[in-house]
Amino acid sequence: MIKAILIFNNHGKPRLSKFYEHYSEDTEQQIIRETFHLVSKRDENVCNFLEGGILIGGSDNKLIYRHYATLYFVFCVDSSESELGILDLIQVFVETLDKCFENVCELDLIFHVDKVHNILGEMVMGGMVLETNMNEIITQVDSQNKMEKSEAGIAGAPARAVSAVKNMNLPEMPKNINIGDISIKVPNMPSFK
Amino acid sequence: MALKIVKGSIDRMFDKNLQDLVRGIRNHKEDEAKYISICIDEIKSELKQDNIAVKANAVCKLTYLQMLGYDVSWAAFNIVEVMSSSKFTFKRIGYLAASQCFHEGTDVIMLTTNQIRKDLSSPNQYDTGVALTGLSCFVTPDLARDLANDIMTLMSHTKPYIRKKAVLIMYKVFLKYPESLRPAFPRLKEKLEDPDPGVQSAAVNVICELARRNPKNYLSLAPLFFKLMTSSTNNWVLIKIIKLFGALTPLEPRLGKKLIEPLTNLIHSTSAMSLLYECVNTVIAVLISLSSGMPNHSASIQLCVQKLRILIEDSDQNLKYLGLLAMSKILKTHPKSVQSHKDLILQCLDDKDESIRLRALDLLYGMVSKKNLMEIVKKLMLHVDKAEGTTYRDELLTKIIDICSQSNYQYITNFEWYISILVELTRLEGTRHGHLIASQMLDVAIRVKAIRGFAVAQMATLLDNAHLLTGNTQRNGICEVLYAAAWICGEFSEHLEDPKQTLEAMLRPKVATLPGHIQAVYVQNAAKLFATVLRSQESAPEAAQETSQLMIERLPLFVQSANLEVQERASCILQLVKYIQKLQQKDVEVAEEVTALFAGELNPVAPKAQKKVPIPEGLDLDAWINEPPSESESEDEKPKAVFAREEPKHTRSRHTEVDEKELAKRREARKQEQANNPFYIKASPSSQKVYQDAPGVEHIPVVQIDLSVPLKVPGLPLSDQYVKMEEERRQKDKDDKKKKEKKRKREKRGRGRQVDSGPESEEDITPAQQVDIMTEEMPENALPSDDDDKDPNDPHKALDIDLDKPLADSEQLPTRTHRSAEVLKSPGGDGDGETITPEPKKKTRKDKKEKKKVKDKERTRSAEDKKNKKKHKHDPEEEEAKIEEAITLVNAEEAQPTAAADLDFWLTTDAAPSSAQEAVAATIPEVPIEAEPSEVKEVEPEEMKSKHKKKKPKKEKEEMEREKKKKKKRHHHHRSERAETESVQNGTMEEEEEEEEPLPPMSNYGLLAENDYIKMVYDIQGNLQDGSQVVVSIIFQNKTSSVLKSMEFNVLDSLNSKLERPEGASPHDALSVPFQLPPEVSNEARFVFAVQSIVMPQKLKGTLTFIVKTDDSSTHEKLDFKLHFTCTSYLITTPCYSDAYAKLLESGDLKSSSLKLEGVTMPFHHSLARICFHHHFSVVERVDSCASMYSRSIQGHHVCLLVKTADETVSIDAKCDELMLLENVLDEIKQTFSQS
């Protein structure tokens, strides 16, 4: 089981948090902070596994994380998950985001956390891995987005126009925080079907 | 209307959307909290509007704020509103918000039940999908109970996208509503073989998760998983299955034996590291479960260790880490194979990654032996010196101690060395583990008698140099060792060389700076030392008096201590010494008596000893000692109190008077006492005077030794020296031995034999001291068991449910009445056949619910009644067979042991085929006797005549199976449309027979068993009347010239198939065959079996016992057999018209499979006849070299075949609503053909 999926940036700002067990908002924030402290003090070239924090889990749990440019992707899992499998899953997740957002960067995650949730929902459900095939995930996400667009129809147009105008004069919009090294390959891991 | 919409959307333009909110927060970095509170106010007003789009937008923003840590539970109702929007866009927003912030405590959740149910049955698959995803996060016991049935229906949805989600969410449903597990399980099991890999993977996922918590309930699934493991190519699925097997093997070692080979193959073949790693892990688990007496698996261990070495040597830190992790598992059972990689692991200690270093340390723990302990510890000590972070250094320290002390100091040959290691460890600055070192010192000194002399000497030195340990700052951690040192010196003071000096060291004023509990030990042990010193000075009374004086001078320092314990002990001992001094002045011999105070040995007591004291007989700890105060008593007392109210008041006042008087008296007395007591600290100046007389702390010169190289305790031998000494000693030992051996050799050479002296083994290393390690004391009659209870709050405990038991009627999931529940079609249920009729009534929810319950009950009852009626109805056919009394309902629980028997059968593999199995040979060549695919296919037709064919060992068979599957895939021609017809020919085969070649004679009777007396052949036919029964007709043939009588027929029921026995008979009773067999006569008897699932072939073991009666004697004989229920035997020849057939194929509910038979030389109509006859099919129509055939199972599955032939190849495309059944039938057809 996956207990939680957290994405935060190099400063510990949460970009996505998905807990598959209930915690109060305060505890959730504490867990994010604790996890950030554990993960951020590790060097780049050390292993990606960490025996769990105190707040989430206990002895059976592990933190498995990857660091891409400005973002940490952390999965908190118990012993029924394969460590290398989860690493691969993170890779699939990030690659899927990259496909869905076309060159994903931190800003995409900041402004479209709902979309990220929707993508994640096609991969992991209730803490269990639902789908690992990237094409399948993208197909499902796309057709849902299409449905959304068709529902919006004409009524949605003005809102979209305004949103576009709002985005036009955005000084911080340049995609300079690109996750450039997104193509880090998991060593010797043929992608799962 | 349109205008209104446009107007609404224009209004909305200026609402803040999620992006605006995020942007706003980023622009208000200084006053973020304030900005957000403004936003929340806005959101609140947005939520009050009627426009659902505005609400959805607000909820979307709330979801974001929730991530930032804001409580948004106040908007729960609005979230429900948005969830119930008809638009997917908003629905998705609502469900996302719900999944993020709803939980079991959210009260509005109960409002969602109907909405979710509606969404689940929505025609739009994404509505359903979104609802499932959301529900998986916030499902509550109530929701689980109410929706379990709907979700179960979805498990058979046509869209794999929904199926996989429904399957996954079932796990959450099980957790919240454990009662649903058993009814849902058969369907879940079916999904393991779903054609869609995603659904399959989800099912594997769920079952693995369930099995991980309660593995024993899932052992019976092992064969199925085994099949999946050897056939699946999906790495995710493989990993899950392999992990599951890792959990199952400890419960069933035979499973492990079966697994080793396929796993080894995977290890060799896979390129995916993740899979390789999990395989290695499971192989290790298998090896652990087999650890006793399986020497021939050393190759597997070697392979694992090799592969792990590759992982550890990899530059990828992740692989390195995992490699070490797995290595530590091997270590537990096969330490020797790991020990050869010591170099590698020691290398890992230098790794820059702390987690890797820690893993390597774990490994070292298990790698030590008597031989290398000193060397390894020496290495570790070097690391201790080098280590930077205190945490890692502390970790090293604990590891060193763990390594040395493991299994009762098993590997320590020289305790002097160990003591000196401990002493060296005291040099560690800032460690938290002083108490650990201390307890080790105590333990060794107490339990290893031989070392006491040395230990005491070392401890005395430590005490002497105590200032080094306590010297600078508050390094309180390490001073704990002084506690041990003081106690050891005191307790074993007889070993001290100069007790007086140690006594002085212990009474130094500096000691007063130590923590209280250590001071207390100091004081107490000073007394012990005092006793020893007195004894040694018996002959010199002056010296003895001096010692007493020393005590009297120094002890007051401790009497002043703020610590009560110290104060009490000190004042006690001070008084004692003063008394002794008095006696000494009177020239009384006191040494003896003082020593007697501390006589006797203190033995170590096991930590659990207290808990293990058995409760004496007749003692009930829960019983009241006195009569419990009855409740009525207190009520009775009240009125009494009313009458005697005045009385107690008086006494009370009198009492207080007395008290006051007495208090005053006591106060006075205490003052008096305090004044007389010189040790009582008083505020008055007079008391200070008293102390000025005594030698104060200030008077003692404190010598601070300033060391440039701190903490090298002088005078202590270094552990390194011991290593050298030890080596020398061992060398010497060896030399001695060699000399002896040489001598021996010389002697032996005379006889012409030479004996090689092997490498030095563990046992050859003799300990330096003769060590007697005392065991810890335990109370008499202590109970040895360790009872570690499971966590009672574990939600998985509730899921510890036996899944092999057949379902009872009462276990069906609550079904909603207004939807037809064709859900429970699972082959498990007793009430299967009964579909619940739709209930169109509409009423208020509440009483509908109640009504439903009642109705459910009624329905099940009536179903039962019907069933019973049916069973008791005397069927003419059955009557003919004279077994009507054989019908009974077999109690599920009593049949349980046979589930294990099924698994047993699967597990006993390489065992030589049993006699029964051997007997399953073809006397009548055409008879299909084996349902399971076997090697028969490969057998040449000429060989067919050979009477006894042995089954190949299972292993080969499995390989075959795999091969076959591959072939099957290659030849898979998918044909779905077969509706076009040219000529319609209805009816069965017989009609066509005349025009073509005559058919060879055929019989469906297969040999059941045979011995010298009797031969049994059998055939199995489905019972048309009852979908859950098959009739087995057995022909008994007497081969002897004597009469066979009292034949009794019995089978070992499995969960799936049971022999119907007369009512009242136990499930193990035998049925008597209703006839005797005169010489050379055969007769037929029929037996009815109840079956539940018909999708798999089954084998039942059984025995026939009978008496052979000759003229002069009669002997008891028995014959074992194995009844083989092929899937074919569950099919019933049913005619079908071509239009109905076409409709059936078009319905799209059927799953397809295909089969290709090569080298079929017989005419086509023979092939068809064969299928018709042996497999109970009927021909729907036939056009030239193509024919369509149909059959129906006793449970109503449709089986359709399209048979085509072209140059000696017969290809069969088949469709059926049950894929597994179809596959098995095809396999059986294949066998029929291979046998001809």
From TrEMBL, chain A:
InterPro entries xrefs: AP_complex_ssu, AP_mu_sigma_su, APS3, Clathrin_sm-chain_CS, Longin-like_dom_sf
CC terms in the record's Gene Ontology section: AP-3 adaptor complex; cytoplasmic vesicle membrane; Golgi apparatus
Location (main, coarse): membrane
Subcellular location: Cytoplasmic vesicle membrane; Golgi apparatus
This protein's UniProt keywords: Cytoplasmic vesicle, Golgi apparatus, Membrane, Protein transport, Transport
Membrane topology type: Peripheral membrane protein
TM stretches of this protein: none
Ranges of residues in domain AP complex mu/sigma subunit: 1-147
Key word Transit peptide present: no
Pfam family, one: Clat_adaptor_s
Biological process according to GO: Golgi to vacuole transport; intracellular protein transport
Family listed: Belongs to the adaptor complexes small subunit family.
Annotated function: Part of the AP-3 complex, an adaptor-related complex which is not clathrin-associated. The complex is associated with the Golgi region as well as more peripheral structures. It facilitates the budding of vesicles from the Golgi membrane and may be directly involved in trafficking to lysosomes. In concert with the BLOC-1 complex, AP-3 is required to target cargos into vesicles assembled at cell bodies for delivery into neurites and nerve terminals.
Protein name (record): AP-3 complex subunit sigma-1 isoform X1
UniProtKB/TrEMBL annotation, chain B:
One GO CC term on file: endosome membrane
Chief place where the protein resides: cytoplasm
Region named Disordered: 621-688, 722-895, 913-1004
Coiled-coil features, chain-numbered ranges: none
SUPFAM superfamilies: ARM repeat
Composition-biased stretches (Basic and acidic residues): 637-673, 723-738, 792-808, 853-867, 934-945
Domain AP-3 complex subunit delta: 658-804
One record GO biological process: anterograde synaptic vesicle transport
Residue ranges with Basic residues bias: 739-752, 842-852, 964-976
Acidic residues bias spans: 774-791, 989-998
Cell location: Cytoplasm; Golgi apparatus membrane
Compositional bias of kind Low complexity: 913-922
Membrane topology annotation: Peripheral membrane protein
Keywords: Acetylation, Coiled coil, Cytoplasm, Golgi apparatus, Membrane, Phosphoprotein, Protein transport, Repeat, Transport
Family: Belongs to the adaptor complexes large subunit family.
Function: Part of the AP-3 complex, an adaptor-related complex which is not clathrin-associated. The complex is associated with the Golgi region as well as more peripheral structures. It facilitates the budding of vesicles from the Golgi membrane and may be directly involved in trafficking to lysosomes. Involved in process of CD8+ T-cell and NK cell degranulation. In concert with the BLOC-1 complex, AP-3 is required to target cargos into vesicles assembled at cell bodies for delivery into neurites and nerve terminals.
Name of this protein: AP-3 complex subunit delta-1
Organism: Clupea harengus (Atlantic herring)
Name of encoding gene: ap3d1
